[in-house]
Amino acid sequence: QVQLVESGGGLVQPGGSLRLSCAASGKIVSINAMGWYRQAPGKLRELVAQITSSGSTDYADSVKGRFTISRDNAKNTVDLQMNSLKPEDTAVYYCNIDRLRDYSGKYSYNYWGQGTQVTVSS
Fold first, then answer.
1. Which residues, in sequence order, are CB contacts of 27 under 8 Å at separation 6+?
2. From CA 14, how far away is CA 12, in angstroms rounded?
3. Phi and psi at residue 88, in whole multiples of 5°?
4. What are the pLDDT digits (tens) for 16-62?
């Protein structure tokens, strides 16, 4: 069974920084894309950043230049470094795997972590 465990959320003042981490565990051979999504109260869940196994990245326009996504393929981890945080970044952040292959060769799709709260406030 595949599990995603996130860490690193919390309360930070505007202009501050936080680093989120996510570790995937289970009988994983390979992972396609790993990413971070967020959901603010009353809003839909949105993509924040995504990184493929080859290192290609994609960012929401609202976080470009402030957030950096990285991953360690050997450890099945993905991090999100968030700088120059704004109150509008306040949300629950979720780690995501879009597709993975397990030891049996089977592909499975769309895994989510439990979410970690990020609050940006003075």
1. 2, 102, 103, 104
2. 7
3. -70, -5
4. 999 999 999 999 999 999 999 999 999 999 999 999 999 999 999 99
Residue that is written with structure tokens 């493929």 in the block: 52
- The residues near 31 (Cβ < 8 Å, ≥ 6 apart) are 24, 53, 73, 76, 97, 99, 100
Helix, strand, coil distribution of the chain in percent, nearest 5? 0, 55, 40
SS (H, E, C) 17-46: CEEEEEEEECCEEEECCEEEEEECCCCCCE
Tokens of 118: 């990020």
Which pair of structure tokens corresponds to residue 34? 């790993």
